[in-house]
Amino acid sequence: MQELEQIVNRLESGELPLEEALNEFEHGVRLARVGQKTLQEAEQRVRILLKDDDDATPDEFIQEAE
């Protein structure tokens, strides 16, 4: 999360050359996707833990529209 914030700050500064800004943006997108996947997996684990069914498996995660 800290690395993502640093990337945002560097991009917002407007001081990066275009190619470097694109590379930073690409890296930020990858970090955000990893964070989103980790969050989804944690949510599935919580759902399983809260179920009473001992044979429960992770449900397909459906992201709600914002």
Topology:
Blueprint: H1 2-13, H2 18-50
Helix pairs in contact: 1-2
List keywords for this structure.
single chain, 66 residues, mainly alpha, 2 helices, rod-shaped, nuclease, exodeoxyribonuclease VII activity, cytoplasm
Fold and architecture overview:
This protein has one domain (1-52). The chain is rod-shaped and about 55 Å long. It has two helices and no strands. The chain has 66 residues and is an all-alpha fold. This is Exodeoxyribonuclease 7 small subunit. Keywords: Cytoplasm, Exonuclease, Hydrolase, Nuclease. GO terms for molecular function: exodeoxyribonuclease VII activity. Heterooligomer composed of large and small subunits.
The biggest beta sheet reads: none
The overall pLDDT average reads 84
Q: What is the number of helices?
A: 2
Share in helix = 55-70%
Distance between the termini: 21 Å
- Category by helix and strand content: mainly alpha
Beta-strand residue fraction: under 5%
Shape: rod-shaped
The run of helices and strands is HH
The low-pLDDT segments are: none
Q: Compute the CA-based radius of gyration.
A: 17 Å
Query: Could you say how many structural domains there are in total?
Result: 1
| Number of beta strands | 0
Keywords: Cytoplasm, Exonuclease, Hydrolase, Nuclease
Subunit structure: Heterooligomer composed of large and small subunits.
Family: Belongs to the XseB family.
Organism: Proteus myxofaciens ATCC 19692
